[in-house]
Write a structure and sequence with these properties.
binds 5-S-methyl-5-thio-alpha-D-ribofuranose; 16 helices; 52% helix; Phosphorylase Kinase, domain 1; binds magnesium ion; alpha+beta; 2 domains; three-stranded antiparallel sheet; five-stranded antiparallel sheet; Aminoglycoside 3'-phosphotransferase, Chain: A, domain 2
């Protein structure tokens, strides 16, 4: 079968031809309810429910949905998403949706319906709290990143896995352009809230900042440390009070571990920094900063735990010598690796915050603040923090220093 974009009328009859999906839904397509709910930037997402159960069917479009057909994008991203879902499920099965069916020609991936989950970004904007969130995200990050890295995977296998994702170049190119380059010049699709013109001009003339962003781009391009989700913002996380699921790994590739860590931290920090615009009469909820701290602490301790648990008698990854090493060297190596992930994460977080305010793809945390001057105030504070994260990384030896800097920034407001 060749590719055809589905719609709310055609998706039911199409899915009825797939036994695994039809069985899960039960009944016949005329008894199914279908809703297209894609609110991301790229794809169609259909939620389909029948008498027996439900599925989410995600279909790639041959172009960038938020821009239109003038920006073509390969359908192969659906193939890489399926590959990543399977790889992530091997290491963090409780944190990713179950894969039910994939159709390469249709660029269609059918997954278990996540219900009653909602996107983390929307929930945080409304001030919801999720006690298990930081632990679950730490688990996803530590398990997928450690167990696809040189610490756990033999050399030849790791190189084969890097090669398996090498073709996802169009998605990496989006990140390379939108996150590291475009916010720093007058790119045609950039936009910003009125009132931020002085910061836009200052950033474009800021050599240390632009250099720091390019250094992060160089890391992104040339550090295939582990299988990254590649787009781990709060819109890629679905939550309930007791569960957290990470979705949408279509940007997956082998890259620097700090990229995934920095992106999710940046999105939690932006959620916090947007609160004074969302609810100006209230004090921002420190729970979000606590979550960011707990996420980093949980990630670091679980990552170190996986390292400690390697059996020195068994050859694991290329860095086997560091599993066998005497305790002093091993502990120093763990600290060294976590320091370097942290340093990367700071830089990537700074880039993510800047591009979400000055680039093409903004976030609802700020965008939904109707009052432009309130929004600009929140974004200006976020930009100041982001610049520091990128340019003054040594000033943030740990995550508490970031929370403190954010607190000071808000106190000055
Ligand atoms: C053109 S795609 C814009 C953004 O949406 C995706 O979710 C990624 O974050 C990408 O950078
Ligand atoms: Mg996405």
């Amino acid at each position: 079968m060749s590719y055809a974009a589905l719609d709310e009328r055609s998706v039911g009859p199409f899915l009825a031809t797939v036994p695994a999906v039809a069985t899960r839904l039960g009944g016949t397509p005329d008894g199914w309810t279908v809703r297209e709910v894609g609110d991301g930037n790229l794809n169609l997402v259909f939620l389909v429910t029948g008498p027996e159960g439900g599925v989410a069917a995600k279909q790639a479009l041959p172009y960038v949905r938020m821009v239109g057909e003038s920006w073509p994008l390969p359908l192969s991203r659906a193939y890489y998403e399926r590959l990543a879902l399977a790889d992530q499920a091997a290491h963090a099965p409780a944190r990713v949706p179950a894969l039910i069916h994939h159709d390469d020609a249709m660029a269609l991936t059918v997954m278990a319906l996540l219900s009653p989950h909602r996107t983390l970004r929307g929930a945080l904007i409304e001030g919801e709290r999720y006690p298990l969130l930081a632990g679950h995200l730490a688990e996803f990050l530590a398990d997928t990143l450690f167990f696809t890295s040189d610490l756990a995977v033999p050399v030849a296998d790791k190189k084969a896995r890097i090669a398996a994702y090498l073709g996802n170049t169009a998605m990496c190119r989006i990140t390379e352009d939108l996150i590291f380059d475009e916010p720093y010049y007058d790119a045609p699709m950039n936009r910003h809230t009125p009132g931020l013109e002085d910061v836009v001009d200052a950033f474009r003339a800021d050599v240390p900042l632009r250099l720091a962003a390019q250094r992060m781009k160089a890391r992104f391009l040339a550090a295939p440390e582990a299988l990254l989700h590649g787009d781990l913002h709060t819109g890629s996380v679905m939550v309930t009070a007791s569960d957290t699921q990470v979705i949408d790994p279509e940007f997956a590739f082998y890259g620097p571990i700090g990229f995934d860590v920095g992106m999710i931290l940046a999105n939690l920090w932006m959620a916090y920094l947007s609160q004074s615009g969302q609810r100006p009469a209230e004090r921002p909820d420190p729970w979000l900063l606590d979550q960011a701290e707990a996420l980093w602490a949980g990630f670091a301790s679980r990552f170190a735990g996986h390292w400690h648990a390697l059996d020195p008698q068994v050859e694991h990854g290329a860095l086997h010598a560091l599993a066998k090493a005497d305790a002093d060297l091993r502990e120093a190596a763990i600290r060294d690796r976590l320091d370097s992930i942290w340093t990367d994460a700071l830089g990537f977080a700074g880039c993510e915050m800047i591009r979400r305010i000055l680039g093409l793809a903004h976030v609802a945390d700020f965008e939904s603040i109707a009052d432009e001057s309130l929004r600009a105030g929140c974004e200006r504070r976020a930009l100041r923090i982001a610049r520091s994260l990128l340019v003054d990384r040594p000033s943030f030896p740990g995550i508490a220093a970031v929370s403190q800097a954010i607190g000071q920034e808000l106190a000055l407001a």
